[in-house]
């Protein structure tokens, strides 16, 4: 058997270039949010300086990953997943609370969020499971078994109070669709989400009437097929449960500030100085950037701190204000190109492990990228998830870098695998 070569120069150049540009954009955007005449850059009180340290550390990880053997990464899947679950449990006892969520470790002034690392370990274990077993995802039993890998860390994170990160794990189900999950099940899940969102906009009694009429019409059209009647009845019952269950989720599951964020999305003007403040100020900042932007370090909304969390959740508003529509469009182009390239490379993989891991990265990055930008534009509730490689935060940056670097490593040995 031919030995698989470890060659850092065999990494995909397009992904490498896009990664470097995104990290650079992120750094200068964070620097802009911290820039004041009396602020010392080389200080641990400066987020831009701390982000620079994390960026340097991420390059150390890049080099380290490429010295790992392909099979060693494969064998790490189970230990890393177990370790991440233990960290998620440990944070309940020794973690610190930040923004209403007890999901952080604090060490020497640096904070680490284990839920970010669990995205990587979950992707790794999913890839190993699909590679080790010939799973038929059209079987509900198999689907439920493999879903436990996703649901377990997601539930632990949800208990911590971090609803946004817990929701990110739902993106892994896109991998299931690629690996053979029934299209009907995907449409069913999407329909449930749409019905839930409709319940936020319309009165529940109106929805009862509309869906009941639709059910009766569907029964009338399929009265000659008893099996369709059973399926329609199940769908109708689930629909009624979703409509009735909204109150439970909004009042009992979500925290008050999370409920307010959802309500502010539906009606931002209801509480412009409270729950709707973030979204309103973010849209003002982006809109004020115009076509070409106000220029680097010239954003008034940024410099005067009108937008809360502008170095993390709302960093896209900084880019929109300082670099305008052109800069924002360029950033969206970079993300789109990155995601397309990841899918292309994932489809070209010889082994299932690399392919599933590649699609896991695609799913997580797509969710973060689309939801974060939608948040800043007022098109989605503020759930507190970062913009990949851009937002301030060492935990998120290292998580995204691990995902991307390991996939780049797996792809770099593809030629060796094909020649075996």
- Sum up the overall morphology in one term: globular
Structural class: mainly alpha
Total domain units: 1
Number of helices: 18
Spatial strand order of the main sheet: 1-2-3
Please tell me how large the radius of gyration is: 23 Å
Order of helices and strands: HHHHEEEHHHHHHHHHHHHHH
For the termini, the CA-CA separation is 6 Å
The major pleated sheet works out as: 3 strands, antiparallel
Mean pLDDT: 83
Task: Explain what the structure shows.
With 420 residues, this protein is mostly helical. It has one domain. The protein is 69% helix and 3% strand. It is built from 18 helices and 3 strands. It has helices spanning 13-34, 47-65, 70-75, 77-94, 114-132, 140-160, 163-168, 173-178, 183-201, 204-221, 226-253, 256-266, 277-288, 300-303, 315-347, 352-376, 394-412, 414-418; strands at residues 96-98, 101-107, 110-112. Strands 1-2-3 form a 3-stranded antiparallel sheet, with helices on one face. Helix 2 (47-65) runs parallel beside helix 17, helix 5 runs parallel beside helix 17 and helix 16 packs antiparallel against helix 17. It is globular, with a radius of gyration of 23 Å. The termini are close together. The mean pLDDT is 83.
């Amino acid at each position: 058997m031919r030995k698989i070569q470890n060659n850092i120069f065999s990494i995909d150049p397009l992904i490498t270039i896009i990664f470097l540009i995104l990290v650079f954009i992120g750094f200068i955007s964070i620097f802009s949010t911290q820039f004041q005449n009396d602020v010392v850059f080389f200080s641990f009180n400066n987020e831009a300086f701390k982000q620079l340290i994390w960026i340097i550390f991420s390059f150390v990880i890049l080099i380290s990953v490429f010295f790992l053997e392909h099979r060693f990464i494969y064998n790490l899947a189970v230990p890393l997943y177990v370790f991440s679950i233990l960290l998620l449990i440990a944070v309940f006892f020794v973690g610190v609370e930040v923004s209403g969520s007890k999901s952080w470790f604090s060490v020497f002034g640096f904070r680490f969020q284990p839920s970010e690392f669990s995205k990587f370990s979950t992707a790794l274990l999913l890839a190993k499971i699909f590679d080790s077993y010939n799973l038929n995802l059209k079987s509900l039993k198999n689907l439920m078994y493999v879903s436990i890998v996703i649901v377990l860390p997601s539930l632990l994170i949800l208990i911590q109070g971090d609803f946004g990160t817990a929701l990110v794990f739902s993106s892994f189900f896109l991998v299931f669709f690629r690996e053979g999950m029934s299209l009907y099940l995907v449409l069913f899940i999407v329909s449930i989400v749409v019905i839930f969102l409709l319940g936020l906009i319309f009165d529940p009694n109106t929805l009862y009437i509309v869906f009941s009429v639709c059910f009766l019409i569907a029964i009338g059209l399929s009265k000659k097929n008893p099996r369709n009647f059973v399926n329609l009845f199940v769908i109708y019952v689930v629909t009624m449960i979703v409509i009735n269950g909204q109150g439970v989720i909004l009042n009992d599951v979500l925290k008050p500030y999370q409920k307010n964020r959802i309500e502010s999305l539906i009606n931002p003007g209801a509480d412009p100085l409270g729950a709707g403040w973030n979204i309103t100020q973010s849209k003002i900042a982006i809109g004020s950037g115009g076509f070409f932007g106000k220029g680097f370090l010239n954003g008034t909304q940024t410099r005067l701190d009108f937008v809360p969390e502008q170095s993390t959740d709302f960093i896209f508003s900084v880019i929109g204000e300082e670099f305008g529509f052109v800069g924002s469009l360029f950033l969206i182009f970079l993300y789109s190109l990155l995601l397309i390239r990841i899918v292309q490379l994932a489809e070209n993989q010889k082994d299932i492990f690399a392919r599933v891991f590649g699609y896991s990265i695609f799913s997580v990055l797509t969710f973060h990228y689309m939801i974060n930008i939608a948040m800043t534009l007022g098109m989605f509730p503020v759930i507190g998830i970062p913009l990949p490689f851009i937002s301030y935060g060492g935990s998120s940056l290292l998580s995204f870098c691990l995902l991307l670097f390991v996939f780049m490593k797996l792809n770099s040995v593809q030629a060796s695998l094909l020649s075996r």
